[in-house]
Amino acid sequence: MKSPRRGIPLVGLRQAFDEVRFGSARTLNLRQWLPTADAAAVRTEAWLRQQQVEQVHEVLIITGRGKHSAEGVSVVREAVIRLLHSLKRRGVVAGHEEHTPGSFVVRLAPVRELFEAPRRRRDRKTPLPVAPPSLDALDALDDETRALLRDLAERALDALGVREREPFVEGEMLKQFGALAAGLSPGPGRESRLRTAIRAALEQYD
Fold this sequence. Notes:
Ribosomal Protein S8, Chain: A, domain 1, single chain
């Protein structure tokens, strides 16, 4: 009778399973990058917002356990935990759980949560128009993108039960544009990716 194979490290098996489950596109390895706590939080938030607008359901964030940190506490890990709680309140993260002592599985909220979360802290029946710093942001968009944003704004206001929505539409468009744009990386095709994100949000109202 042959003896079972030996010498396969458990950590290697876990990494193999994680690669199948998440792949490189849905894994953020902060341990490999070795950032400061503040830099880790900035990078993680931008990455999570990008994943959200791309309608990714769950991702893996590797922070490391902090074995070589002061007092054995990973400042990056602690910064990411604080960020995840903050992003949950802001409608980006639906929840998270420890995957290993040095990593987290994060579930992302639907895109429409970006618009719903702030309203939970005020009267949902009386949204106030937003005074934008400039209307240039909307004017710079093409007609198709503006039409999609308007449709999204109107559906959001309808969902709130707003009867006279016209005074609030433009402010709602700017608010949603800002929320979605925050999750889009710069570069060619950004407006096309914005339209994809808007359509994803619209589908969640159907």
